[in-house]
Design brief:
Elements: E1 7-19, E2 31-43, E3 47-51, H1 57-62, H2 69-74, E4 77-78, H3 85-88, E5 101-103, H4 109-112, E6 122-125, H5 127-135, H6 138-143, H7 155-158, E7 159-161, E8 167-169, E9 179-182, E10 189-193, E11 202-207, E12 213-218, H8 224-228, H9 235-241, H10 244-260, E13 265-268, H11 272-275
Parallel strand pairs: 3-5, 5-6, 6-7, 12-13
Antiparallel strand pairs: 1-2, 1-4, 2-3, 8-9, 9-10, 10-11, 11-12
The structure holds zinc ion.
Zinc ion binds near residues 111 and 270.
């Protein structure tokens, strides 16, 4: 990883409600809040980028009709007026037109709902993920958490695929993860495949301007607690969306990374503990 540092701001763009047991084996059946985290990454030469988008008013538009409405009913979403990423970037003097790229962990609605809000952004993503959302019908997509209506019409023209970027070595702290995709060609932002949650699911490693090493892990883990305790969700949740065996192998690798390098800022997208460190909207 290069010496280039980015200014990283963790933001929370809405939340949804699920029974805890859906995300943590042995968890309670009580509904709990799952925040949707996103990050503004101010890169010194590439400009302002986002890691995922979290929720956005576009989510409500995309789930107004059947069968998409099922998605909104299954996971009720709360989104404050000032919470969408497109609003929060205003605090940094930015407008949605300024965002140069959105780095997408995967195409579930809670991660890409804001894509329509950033018309100039390159969409940095896994080809495997884009192919899945484009290839499924509306019913099959909704069952897997995918809302094709959130994809901008020109997504193909704006897409930059992780699979096509040059490979580069990850810093030793991220072992057992060894290599990733060098997104900008300067070794500063490295996408790392984290298989299991769904097809084309990747994380992102970036060095912050405060020198901390961030590892955004998307939905490879629901919480830091799950990583610390190596405690996966129940198999019915992981089998519905992805592959349980691969999910568990990825979680075990994150557990091992955390044990060896606790200073790495591991950031699961829906972790309440991580969300407590997000900047207020
Ligand atoms: Zn998610």
């Amino acid at each position: 990883m290069s010496a280039v540092r980015s200014e990283i701001h963790l933001l929370k763009a809405g939340a949804c409600v699920h029974p805890e047991a859906a995300a943590l084996r042995g968890g309670s059946l009580c509904p709990v809040d799952f925040p949707a985290l996103t990050a503004l990454i101010l890169h010194p030469t590439a400009g302002p980028l986002l890691w995922d988008t979290g929720y956005d008013p576009a989510f409500f538009r995309a789930t107004r009709r059947w069968p998409e409405k099922l998605y909104a009913l299954a996971t009720p979403v709360t989104l404050g007026e000032d919470e969408p990423a497109a609003r929060q970037i205003g605090r940094f003097g930015l407008t949605p037109d300024d965002i140069q790229g959105v780095i997408v962990s995967h195409f579930h609605g809670d991660h890409v709902a804001g894509l329509p809000a950033f018309p100039n952004a390159k969409i940095l993503c896994a080809r495997a993920g884009l192919e899945q959302i484009q290839g499924l019908g509306r019913f099959a997509g909704v069952r897997r958490g995918l809302l094709a209506g959130l994809l901008p019409a020109d997504v193909e023209a704006r897409a930059v695929f992780f699979e096509d970027r040059p490979r580069c070595a990850l810093p030793a702290e991220l072992a057992p993860f060894e290599t990733g995709a060098d997104l900008l060609g300067d070794g500063s932002l490295i996408a790392v495949e984290l298989p299991g949650h769904c097809p084309g699911h990747w994380g992102l490693a970036a060095r912050g301007s405060d020198d901390r090493l961030w590892f955004f892990v998307g939905d490879a883990a629901w919480s830091l607690k799950a990583i610390r305790e190596n405690r996966p969700p129940p198999a019915f949740t992981t089998a519905l969306l992805g592959r349980t065996d691969r999910y568990r192998a990825t979680l075990a690798d994150l557990h091992s990374l955390h044990g060896r390098a606790p200073e790495v800022v591991l950031t699961p997208s829906h972790c309440r503990e991580a969300a407590a460190t997000a900047e207020a909207p």
